[in-house]
Amino acid sequence: MAQIIALDKRVTGLAKPDYWRAAFSHYAGEPRPDRSFLVAESPRAKPGRSILGFIIGEIRAWEFGSAPCGWILALSVEAGARLHGVGQALFDAISLEFTQAGINTVRTMVARGNRLHLMFFRSQGMMAGPYLQLEKELD
Question: Residue 121 in contact with residue 129, Cβ under 8 Å?
Answer without folding.
Answer: no
